[in-house]
Design brief:
The structure holds two protein chains of two kinds. Chain A is an alpha+beta fold. Chain A contains three helices and three strands. In chain A, helix 2 packs across helix 3 (50-64). The longest helix of chain A has 15 residues, at 9-23. Classes of the chains: A alpha+beta, B alpha/beta.
Chain lengths: 89, 268
């Protein structure tokens, strides 16, 4: 157990993971939500493709350093064009 | 800068200008082709496409090239600004060059007037910056780093104001990446509002009496709000609108305009 674990372990862990997801060149994701609950670290949010989903999990696992299991709940986003023409057309 | 637009067949009618808008498309090397598909029918539905920053994921010039190739195929005028992601590798100038070579207008403290079937649509754009909102914002005080942060925000907003005021047009729009009001940040954690926008931008938009302000950056925010001066603000970050783009119909007269699915009308 480290000194920071004795103070407030999961807050610092969440901070480290979020920093890593934002700064690591494999991800550069600033909008992934990171939560610790029930002894697990969860990744929540949307990413642009499947490779980004995997990269986020990998970066998070490296930042966690086996302190907690990482649960990847990220969704791959798909955005459709607006349906139908504007009624004023 | 000035461009003429005839309007795609079947799209326009006299008295209405349709704006397609989106931000935060975050294209990377791993998403080639995705942008092309998501704008396949935009020219049938809108007169102009606005892209409010964060076109790339990591800010590499070759990501900008992917964006340029795919946005360059859109058959209506495309007007873009850069977001903070385009600055991450310090390759923003190369990204801008790729976009312009593809025929895309890239604004940063300047504007363009587009003639849409006789209506002069003016768009001024700037990336903007953070700093916070009135009553909870940073100031040019203390450490050099803090002063530089707020000075950058203030100078970007001043550029936007001057660009907006110089536009000679019938309809005036502002496009920023950072938010000009905290209203569209609802859903984001309040602690990070100073990193998401600045009231300096809202002040510029109000002074210039814009009809509409478009921004992105706040992925967890809210689509609709207004500035303190009453200008409609729309956060078109893709995770917020949950569509490839959103369409806003702007009346060129006082006539009431109906709304269609996934579109919004903003009367004059």
């Amino acid at each position: 157990m480290t000194d920071t674990d004795l103070i407030e372990p999961h807050k610092y862990l969440v901070g480290r993971v979020r920093q890593a997801l934002a700064e690591d060149l494999r991800t550069n994701q600033l909008d992934i939500q990171v939560y610790v609950t029930s002894g697990k670290l969860y990744l929540i949010g949307q990413v642009g493709c499947h490779s980004r989903r995997g990269a986020a999990e990998q970066v998070a696992c490296e930042a966690v350093q086996d302190q907690l299991p990482v649960v990847n709940e990220l969704c791959v986003e798909t955005y459709e064009e607006p349906t139908g023409l504007d009624e004023t057309a | 800068m000035r461009r003429d637009v005839r309007g795609a067949d079947g799209v326009g009618r006299d008295g209405v200008v349709r704006i397609a808008a989106v931000a935060d498309v975050h294209v990377g090397r791993d998403m080639s082709g995705a942008l092309r598909a998501s704008f396949a029918h935009v020219a049938e539905r809108a007169d102009v496409l606005l892209v409010a920053g964060d076109l790339t994921q990591h800010g590499f010039a070759d990501e900008g090239l992917v964006v340029a190739r795919e946005l360059g195929e859109v058959e209506i005028p495309v007007v873009a600004i850069l977001g903070n992601h385009e600055y991450h590798q310090s390759e923003q100038e190369a990204i801008t060059r790729h976009l312009r070579d593809a025929g895309i207008t890239v604004l940063e403290g300047d504007g363009i007037v587009i003639d849409v079937r006789g209506t002069r649509l003016g768009v001024a754009g700037v990336k903007g910056f953070g700093g916070g909102f009135a009553g909870a914002c940073g100031t040019e005080f203390g450490e050099d780093e803090m002063k530089a942060f707020i000075r950058h925000s203030r100078t970007r907003a001043e550029l936007l104001k001057q660009a907006l005021l110089s536009l000679e047009c019938d309809i005036k729009l502002a496009m920023t990446h950072y938010a000009p009001t905290k209203g569209t940040l609802a859903g984001e954690r309040p602690e990070i509002y100073p990193f998401l926008g600045s009231y300096f931008l809202g002040e510029a938009i109000d002074v210039a009496r814009c009809r509409l302000a478009i921004h992105g950056h706040a992925h967890l925010g809210t689509e609709r709000a207004v500035t303190p001066g009453g200008v409609p603000v729309r956060n078109v970050a893709r995770p917020v609108i949950k569509l490839a783009y959103k369409i806003y119909s702007l009346a060129t007269s006082e006539d009431q305009v109906h709304e269609g699915p996934h579109s919004e009308s903003l009367a004059s």
